[in-house]
From TrEMBL:
InterPro entries: Ribosomal_bL35, Ribosomal_bL35-like, Ribosomal_bL35_sf. Keywords: Ribonucleoprotein, Ribosomal protein. Belongs to the bacterial ribosomal protein bL35 family. This is Large ribosomal subunit protein bL35. GO terms for biological process: translation. The gene is rpmI. Residues 1-21 have a biased composition (Basic residues). PANTHER family: 54S RIBOSOMAL PROTEIN BL35M, LARGE RIBOSOMAL SUBUNIT PROTEIN BL35M. Pfam families: Ribosomal_L35p. The keyword Ribosomal protein applies. GO terms for cellular component: cytosolic large ribosomal subunit. Residues 1-29 are annotated as: Disordered.
Amino acid sequence: MPKMKSHTGTGKRVRVTGRGKLRTEQAGKRHLLEGKPSTRTRRLTGTVEVAKADVKRIKKLLGR
């Protein structure tokens, strides 16, 4: 049987914490920033925990 390969694109976007939780950057802070209020862009900084509905799929992509 061949080895399972992790999805390298997902690996670059998602970090696994020490307790196994998944953290990723928030969407909506890449472009068209002039039209967005600075309060919104500040709120979108930093990482957030991946939505519960997506955890199973992303863990499979990461080979975990």
